[in-house]
Write a structure and sequence with these properties.
Chain lengths: ~350, ~450
């Protein structure tokens, strides 16, 4: 747990180590920390899933997991498994102790673009095109969900109700129970929704749109808020742990909406400007009010939302920041780049 | 700091089922062109090349909420292309194959609308494959068939072995009338040199109208022209009642003209026809060359107009064919017959729905007026305008202004300076139910000074 914020300001120790993959450098699509923060796994555009020791930076496992690109990788919440998915139409599950493959979920021809572990770590959702499956860790299918009319762009478990989840695609968000084949509710919005983010208290569901907007549903009423005027499509959404702030990209700035009090409608958002070019990824720390951002300019920044100021600016890389991932404690930040490099920032001593 | 690298070109392959798209695609993939090609194939695709990188995709058409009613994009392409570009072993080329019944607009618009795609990829061209024999079954009834022709940068008239030369010529003429911009090639089994279909720079502003559009036959504002020798005698133009309440008519000096010179005369005549016309009633004299007279024919019965022109050789151009009005040039000794004459196609045989309109004009444009005219035009007619391109001479600007568009999406910027090149404006619109006269008039009203204007 971070100490007082004044400590942050002066004790930032950027860069305890800087890793790069050894053989060749490929665009990193996804990063995931083990819950104990000992391991960090990456998925890259060449199809590899690579596991590293955080202490040494040593890559101890190089899995040529997916014959085309590997699109996502995720530790199970209990840390016992790692799941990856890719353009070969497969999702793989590995034992995180041995990195031996324990199961394969086969989606056929089309890319598996989304995965999400259930809180219990006993089952996982995998999405490819219009198909969505819930499978056990041994790969056995538990349920297929087939109501989708177009490709599933994102999926998210409800943080407050472990068996419910949401999926986004063109023309709306569907709310599901893992125990029912058909969706329970449709939150319609005519437009291409690219991603979704539940507020941690599950009272707000935010979606980014292709048309340079964020669409927000207040639950359970499903009253809608519509934030438009972004410079580009909004793919970057992240909530702070208290559910007060929603940070959004879609521009060369980060726009942070405050949901306290009467909420963000009609209020002026907090804006963080520091990137040259579009922001490519943002991530709130799991605790506290630190917000990390990466841009097409290769810059990694960490902002303090309370002070409305930046506490870290790193310009060592010039290639696009593709992914930012905090460890569970919110003390370490990993940044992945299009060049294939990963930089680790230790934010507290 | 950002590294800029050359954009990867993308060619879109359209054509009805059975037109030979897949054969062509397989041919491209096996041809020894040294390019590393990735293919995004439609859900029914059947590419039979094992080592090719082929991604299957369901066409997902997304409407955009950007206030542009016809703006649709291919959501699947945004996802897939974005992902493909992350690979280190980047491709030299990407091919997108659409389904047979696809409207090419969403594919093209994807390249205008999505920032990520725009930054990394360049739409090179739309190639449409046509089955010469079977296209006639669809061309009248299918809007997709027409759109695929209208959008194309390159059209392959494939399976030419299944039709006669006459049929092929007719088909080519019809397709040319719809799309004056495309390069048309006749093929069998999709056999064609790769450089004719790949890297054609169809959407490259730097090369906008580098090749002049081919208008099959210019559509003239007159249907007939004839050359006459006027000697000393008094001449009268006599007409009977015809199908229209008036007829436009023009005399040009044609001192040394032979029949071969009609082209040049017709060009001059077109310029005259675009200027003010002088309306006259029967009994009034025709006294000037280079002046289009609008002869009022509302009076019942025969009508006569004296021609007061000095002796010499003249060309006469008439809006309609003379026989429709029993038009004749009479002297006291009888009628004067033309030395030679020509009848112009009024365009009745062309596809009435999808056409190309070209505008070429000297003079400088008032930028404000032009912007507002084009803005209004795209707002009102954007759904019907498939593609447009142009090079403009803007008043007060040293550089050429180049632009292109797909439906309501517009992309334009100043280009290289005019230098020694004569300044002029060239535009082409391809679309449905285009009103040629309105477009010409609208464009004309944006010119700084009312200069000469011709249409094709």
């Amino acid at each position: 747990m971070p100490q007082k914020e004044s400590a942050i300001e002066y004790k930032v120790k950027p860069l305890i180590s800087q890793w790069s993959t050894l053989a060749c450098l490929d665009y990193i699509n996804d990063l995931s920390w083990s819950p104990n923060a000992y391991h960090l796994v990456s998925a890259d555009a060449a199809g590899r899933v690579i596991a590293r020791s955080v202490l040494t930076g040593y890559s101890f496992e190089d899995l040529t997991a997916h014959t085309l690109g590997a699109l996502c990788v995720r530790f199970s919440p209990d840390g016992n498994f790692v799941a990856s998915a890719g353009q070969d139409g497969k999702a793989n599950i590995y034992d995180s102790n041995t990195y031996a493959k324990v199961a394969t979920i086969d989606h056929g021809d089309s890319w598996v673009e989304q995965i999400a572990w259930h809180q219990s770590s006993r089952c996982i959702l995998t999405a490819s095109g219009k198909t969505l499956r819930l499978s056990a860790t041994d790969g056995n299918l538990i349920r297929k969900f087939e109501d989708h009319k177009s490709t599933i762009s994102d999926l998210a478990w409800n943080p407050a109700a472990p068996d419910l989840f949401a999926t986004s695609n063109y023309n709306g968000i569907r709310l599901w129970s893992k125990d029912q084949t058909n969706h329970k509710r449709l939150l319609a919005w005519k437009g291409s929704l690219l991603n979704i983010a539940y507020s941690p208290n599950a009272k707000v569901l935010a979606a980014g749109c292709q048309d340079g907007a964020a669409h927000i549903w207040l639950l359970p009423s499903a009253d809608e808020l519509f934030m438009d005027g972004y410079q580009t499509k909004v793919r970057e959404l992240t909530w702070d742990s208290s559910s007060r702030y929603l940070a959004t990209g879609g521009s060369d700035q980060i726009t942070v909406w405050d949901f306290s009090g009467k909420g963000p409608s009609g209020s002026k958002p907090i804006v963080f400007a520091g990137h040259e070019g579009f922001v490519s990824t943002i991530s709130f720390a799991p605790k506290g009010l630190m917000l990390a951002s990466g841009g097409n300019d290769g810059r990694v920044m960490v902002w303090d939302v309370n002070k409305q100021d930046s506490i870290l600016v790193n310009e060592d890389e010039v290639s696009k920041v593709t992914k930012l991932a905090w460890n569970q404690e919110g003390t370490k930040l990993a940044a992945a780049f299009a060049s294939g490099r990963i930089t680790l920032f230790n934010l507290f001593e | 700091m950002r590294t800029t690298s050359a954009k990867v070109p993308v060619t879109v392959l359209t054509g009805f089922l059975g037109s030979g798209k897949t054969t062509l695609l397989n041919r491209i993939l096996t041809e020894n062109h040294g390019k590393r090609i990735a293919v995004i194939e439609n859900e029914f695709g059947e590419i039979g090349i094992d080592d090719a990188l082929v991604v299957k995709s369901d066409e997902e058409i997304f409407e955009m909420n950007n206030g542009c009613i016809c703006c649709t994009v291919r959501g699947d392409l945004i996802r897939i292309l974005g992902n493909l570009m992350r690979r280190k072993d980047k491709f030299d080329y990407i091919l997108v194959e659409t389904t047979g019944l696809a409207d090419p607009a969403p594919v093209a618009q994807t390249f205008f609308v999505d920032d990520e795609i725009q930054a990394q990829l360049q739409l090179d061209g739309i190639v449409t494959v046509i089955d010469c024999k079977h296209v006639l079954l669809h061309i009248d009834s299918s809007s997709e068939c027409k759109e695929q022709i209208a959008f194309a940068d390159v059209i392959l008239l494939n399976k030419t072995d299944l039709v006669t030369d006459d049929e092929l010529a007719q088909l080519e003429a019809r397709i040319r009338s719809m799309n004056a911009m495309a390069k048309i090639y006749k093929t069998q089994n999709g056999v064609i040199e790769m450089d004719k279909i790949l890297s054609v720079s169809g959407f490259d502003l730097d090369k906008a109208l580098a090749t002049k559009p081919t208008f099959l036959q210019p559509e003239y504002p007159f249907e007939w022209g004839g050359i006459f020798d006027f000697k000393g005698e008094h001449r009268t133009l006599v007409l009977d009642e015809g199908p229209d309440p008036s007829i436009d008519l023009l005399f040009l000096k044609a001192d040394k003209a032979e029949s071969a010179d009609f082209d040049e005369l017709a060009e001059a005549a077109v310029r005259c026809f675009s200027s003010n016309k002088k309306q006259i009633k029967p009994g009034v004299s025709i006294e000037r060359c280079d002046q289009v007279y609008k002869l009022d024919l509302t009076k019942e019965g025969g009508k006569a107009f004296d021609i007061v022109l000095e002796s010499g050789r003249y060309a006469m151009f008439t809006q309609h064919r003379p026989e429709e009005f029993s038009l004749a040039l009479c002297t006291t000794n009888g009628t004067i017959e033309p030395l030679c004459s020509i009848t112009y196609d009024a365009g009745h045989s062309h596809d009435s729905e999808v056409t190309s309109v070209g505008i070429e004009s000297d003079g400088d444009l008032d930028q404000k007026k032009f912007n507002s005219w084009l803005g209004d035009l795209l707002r009102e007619k954007g759904t019907d305008i498939f593609r447009m391109k142009g090079i403009l001479s803007i008043a007060g600007e040293n550089a050429r202004f180049v632009f292109q568009g797909v439906h309501m999406l517009f992309d334009g910027r100043p280009d290289r300076p005019w230098g020694d090149e004569p300044r002029n404006n060239q535009l082409i619109f391809i679309g449905r139910n285009l009103n040629r006269a309105e477009l010409v008039e609208g464009f004309n009203s944006c010119l700084k000074k009312n200069r000469q204007l011709s249409t094709k």
